Amino acid sequence: MGGGIHFENKKVIPYFLLLVLIILNITGCSRNNFPKKEDKYTKTQKIAISALSDTFSMYKTKKFNLLKYKKYNNWHLFLYYMTTDNSPQYLLCLVENNKALWYASAGYPAMSMGFGVNRVKYKGKSIYFCNLNTSTWIPSTGARKPTNYTKMVFEFENGTKLIENVKGDKGYIVIVDGYKKLKDIILYNAKGEIVNRYEDIGYDCYECKIVGFKSK
After folding, report:
1. What is the pLDDT of residue 11?
2. Sheet of strand 194-197, all strands in order from the earlier edge strand to the far edge
3. How far apart (Å, rounded) are the C-alpha atoms in residues 133 and 119?
4. Transmembrane region positions (predicted)?
5. Which of the pair, 90 or 152, is modelled with greater confidence?
6. Buried-state track 121-136, b at ≥16 Cβ within 10 A, e below 16
7. Running DSSP on this structure, what letter comes out for residue 11?
C-alpha cells in the first residue's frame, strides 16, 4: 500500500515509457535550438553592421537589408541593400579575422534589368556580387516579365565556366580564382530558359574599390 504511481495493467508500462522518451527528446531538441553561445554567423554579422553603421553615421535614416551571405574559408561575406535618406546602394562587406572591409556598388542599383554585376579583387580572387530582381525589363516591348532565377553561368575568355545556384536568392556572391576577363553571364529560370544575359546590361562589370575598413 505504498505511494506513487500504480499500474493495474502491465501493458500500459511500455506506452508510458515511450511517452517519457518523447518528452525528453523534445526537451533536448528545444535546448539545441536555443544555444547559449552565439554562432559565428551572428558574431561576424554584428561586426559587419557595426562597421557599416560607423561609416554611414552621417545619415539620419539608414537601414541594412541582408540579401545574401556566403562563407568562404575564413571569409564571411555579406551583401546588403542599404537605404538611406540619400540614395539606395548595394554593399559587400567582407569579415576576416574580426576585420571588416566593405565595398559599394558603382553607380545606382540595377533596377530596370533583373541583375547587375560588380567585381572586387581581393587576395588573388575575383568576387562578383549584386542584386537579383524578381522581374526584368524587355526592351522590345517595354514590358516586364518575372525572372524566377535558379542558375547563373559565368563564362570567362580563357574558356572556364562557373555555375552558381541562385534559386530564391535576392542577390548573389560568386568567388573565382584569379582575375580572368568575363566573357558572358547567362541567367536561367526553373524551366531551363534563358532569362537574361550579360549583354542585357551592356557588358558592364563595375570594378569596386574599398570604401571602408574596421578592425575590432
Report:
1. 52
2. 161-165, 149-156, 182-189, 194-197
3. 18
4. 12-30
5. 152
6. ebeeebbbbbbbbeeb
7. T
Q: 54-63, 89-98, 143-152, 172-181 — which is least confidently predicted?
A: 54-63
| Residues 214, 83, 170, 68, Cα dihedral to 10° | 10
Nearest to 124 by CA among 69, 185, 73, 67: 73
- pTM exceeding the 0.85 threshold for the entire prediction: no
- Identify whether the C-beta of residue 182 lies closer than 8 Å to the C-beta of residue 156: yes
Name residue 184's beta-bridge partners.
155
- The answer to whether 188 touches 194, Cβ cutoff 8 Å, is yes
Burial class (CB in 10 A: 0-12, 13-18, 19+), 103: buried
- Strands 99-104 and 89-96 turn out to be antiparallel
Q: Which of 178, 74, 179, 70 is closest to 129 using CA atoms?
A: 70
Q: What is the DSSP string of 16-37?
A: HHHHHHHHHHHHHHHHHHS-SS
